[in-house]
Write a structure and sequence with these properties.
The chain is α+β, with helices and mostly antiparallel strands and about 425 residues long. The chain is built from 9 helices and 27 strands.
Length: about 425
């Protein structure tokens, strides 16, 4: 769910792994066609599988298939994948403020918060909104000393820096002066906040917060949820896809965010990479100098503004999604469902076969040569008996039993739905 190169996008990169427990029945399987054993070391494995990602919730390629081939609406797509939920407005009890979503900019971890603006000027604020300083120059750098910040200014991120003073505040907000004026146009690059990173720069609307965590500098983008989604949806789905699939992606991305993330630290609600959702501001140099938004996804976000998936309890559902289910979703918070749409949209990840060297696996476990691989439990849904739930690796000196997801990671596979040929 990110915009890498077109090749990587076609490969269907999935959202970062979220550790939820599957609720679907698990059963043992016959060793026939589920294992490979040998009295001699195994140098490589031929593995066939289905899908890309964890398979929980919506399949993005499935949404494409249902929208393009079956002409499903966004609501029909969402109802299919997120059983037991319905569409509704963001409830007042939401754990995240929809007007001030805090996004941890992970590419800036340990880097001094450095922000510039093309025109209009900058101001520094406390978290309560009171003014700390008005900056006459076009760039600021906040150097954390663990208990506060040293304020430095310059004409640009690449210019020479002069130290202004030390600030006692532990969290400081940087805001554009022009953004507070009537007629402010957030799509004008020169009015946006440019976060100057170690290898690339990104332009954001809203404000930028600088704080510390464990003695290291942290930089956070603070924006309304609808602005946040403008930098997410086209990086999680192709903007050329059918309108219904983009609307479904918009609702799923909004709901996934607004449900909250227990993994985040107190200073942020979410992050900007595949561990959460890929968020690329409004303009970015991350993969080339490009506009991070798109008119078609902007339209889908606007048409679904404020809509999330809600549980019967009134809580927002954490609507996980992944690139491809392989033909059956994995269950978890939502009922596992057959996913015919996953095969309809030219999905190269619906089924696949790869050759895997055993070198990395043997190096990780350091137990001699690999002699066998056996899938001992599956979830019982779909081809091969479904996703691997339990896998046994047999080495020269010991056997190791792991979950299907761990086996997937150790073998470098696209999903935990696989069979060893």
């Amino acid at each position: 769910m990110l915009r890498w190169t077109e090749l990587a996008r076609l490969a269907g990169l999935a959202i970062g792994v979220m550790m939820l427990v599957s609720l679907i029945p698990i059963g043992s399987v016959s060793a026939s066609q589920q294992s490979i054993t040998s009295g001699t070391p195994i140098d490589s494995l031929t593995i066939s599988g289905r899908g890309w990602g964890h398979g929980r919730g919506m399949s993005q390629y499935g949404a494409l298939g249902y929208a393009s081939a079956d002409h499903w609406t966004a609501t029909e797509i969402l109802d299919h994948y997120y059983g037991g939920t319905s569409s509704g407005p963001i409830p007042p009890s939401a754990v995240i403020d929809p007007l001030a979503v805090r996004v941890d900019l992970r590419y800036m971890h340990g880097i001094d918060t450095t922000v510039s603006i093309g025109e209009g000027g900058l101001e520094l604020l406390e978290t309560d909104g009171s003014t700390i300083a008005n900056i006459e120059q076009n760039a600021v750098r906040l150097r954390s000393d663990g208990a506060g910040f040293v304020l430095q200014t310059s004409d640009s991120c690449d210019g020479s820096w002069s130290t202004s003073r030390r600030l006692e505040e532990t969290t400081i907000q940087i805001r554009s002066k022009v953004s507070q004026q009537p007629g402010y146009a957030s799509d004008q690059k020169e009015h946006l906040l440019r976060v100057c990173g170690p290898t690339y720069d990104v332009w954001y609307d809203g404000s930028i917060q600088s704080t510390t965590q464990g003695g290291e500098a942290r930089t956070v983008s603070v924006v309304p949820v609808e602005t946040y989604l403008r930098g997410v949806v086209p990086n999680e789905a192709f903007a050329s896809w059918p309108e219904a699939s983009l609307q479904a992606q918009s609702v799923a991305a909004r709901s996934y965010l607004m449900a909250g993330d227990r993994r985040q630290l107190p200073y942020a609600d979410t992050c900007d990479n595949t561990r959460c959702q890929v968020y690329d501001g409004l303009f970015s140099e991350r993969r080339s100098n490009h506009t991070s938004t798109h008119p078609r996804t902007d339209k889908a976000i606007e048409e679904t503004a404020g809509v999330v998936r809600v549980k019967p309890s009134g809580q927002i559902a954490r609507t996980e999604f992944s690139s491809s289910s392989g033909g059956y979703t994995a269950g978890g918070d939502f009922p596992a469902v057959e996913d015919r749409g996953d095969a309809l949209g030219g999905n190269v990840n619906h089924s696949w076969t790869v050759q895997v060297s055993t070198d990395a696996l043997e190096a990780y476990y350091n137990s001699g040569d690999l002699l066998g691989v056996e899938v001992t439990k599956r979830n019982g849904l779909g081809a091969y008996g479904g996703r691997a739930v339990e896998v046994v690796f047999t080495f020269e000196t010991k056997s190791v039993t792991v979950s299907g997801n761990v086996a997937r990671q150790r073998l470098g596979l696209k999903s935990d739905w696989f069979v060893v040929n």
